[in-house]
Amino acid sequence: MAIKKKNSRSFFDAVVNKKTLHKNLEFTAVEQYKLLRANLSFTLPEGVKCPIIGVTSSMRGEGKSTTAINLSYVLAESGKSVLLIDGDLRIPSVAKKMDISSSPGLTDLLMGYESHQMGVFKTSLLENWYVMPSGDLPPNPSELLGSRRMESILRLAAEKFDYIIVDLPPVNVVSDALAISKYLTGMIVVIREDYTEKKELEACFRQLKLSNVNVLGCVMNEAENSNGTHSRYRKYSKYYRKYYTSSGTHQK
Ligand SMILES: Nc1ncnc2c1ncn2[C@@H]1O[C@H](COP(=O)(O)OP(=O)(O)O)[C@@H](O)[C@H]1O
Ligand SMILES: [Mg+2]
User: From the alpha carbon of 60, which atom of ligand 1 is closest?
Assistant: First the structure.
């Protein structure tokens, strides 16, 4: 498992093999999420006070929500104040996975609920871990996620937190992740070993590239172990490299 050099936008070789950490503190999974946390600090642009990180993938079921919950948890555990937002306003799962109420949530803020009332999203698990569920499902998620109101919610939250993680729907199914991407520092793409279709992954990177999204890196979910990193991941990583160079400069 290689930790990449500073600012290289290469794969986070994170190998994750259990469900959500707050319910299942399996040692290897914890270590892999911690590694993801460390790798993230190498790929984030310098000087951003509160990085806003989207988590997406090509299709449903690849582990976006699981990754978003666990990444936000390990960041909070390291002492940072972290807000996790369920930005999947079509099939939200954060509230269910965490066994909390799904409202009030993001759609309430989008509809005018005062966004300084962040206290309601504080979790009972960690002092500095805040989780904002989806709220009631709206008819127009893509418009809402790309709206100026969304931008101001994120900007206000960025003044209060050290990290914001946004769980998003898949890129190839709906335009929501692309719609909000202009307000994000960068995106993490989740790939599920032996599940993610290569052509779907290529389409996902193509879309992200076309929308000029800064892909911070990828998470290999449910990979069995970290040995033989390059041979195991090569089949997926070539699609990433096709659209994003390893030097981090955007290809034209
Ligand atoms: N590494 C893993 N090991 C075992 N089960 C997993 C793992 N990652 C995800 N799952 C399970 O797979 C299903 C889909 O994961 P989820 O995070 O909801 O995906 P997505 O948000 O991409 O649709 C969930 O039931 C989740 O608990
Ligand atoms: Mg999800």
Answer: 23
Using CB distances shorter than 6 Å, the residues near ligand 1 are 16-19, 57, 60-66, 93, 221-222
Tokens read off for 252: 């034209």
165 phi and psi angles, rounded to 5 deg: -115, 130
Q: Are 17 and 28 in contact (CB under 8 A)?
A: yes
* CA–CA gap between residue 136 and residue 39 (Å, rounded): 34
Q: What pLDDT sits at residue 224?
A: 65
Distance 146 CA to ligand 2 centre (A): 19
Say which residues have a Cβ less than 8 Å from residue 206's Cβ, sequence separation at least 6: 243
Q: Is the peptide bond before 104 cis (omega within 30 degrees of 0)?
A: yes
What is this structure's pTM?
Answer: 0.89
Tell me how far the alpha carbon of residue 163 lies from the centroid of ligand 1, in angstroms. Answer: 23
Is the pLDDT score of 5 beyond 50? no
Which domains are present in the chain? 12-243 (3.40.50.300)
**For residues 251 and 75, which has the higher predicted lDDT (pLDDT)?**
75
Q: What is the pLDDT of residue 88?
A: 98
Q: How confident is the model at residue 28 (pLDDT cuts 50, 70, 90)?
A: low
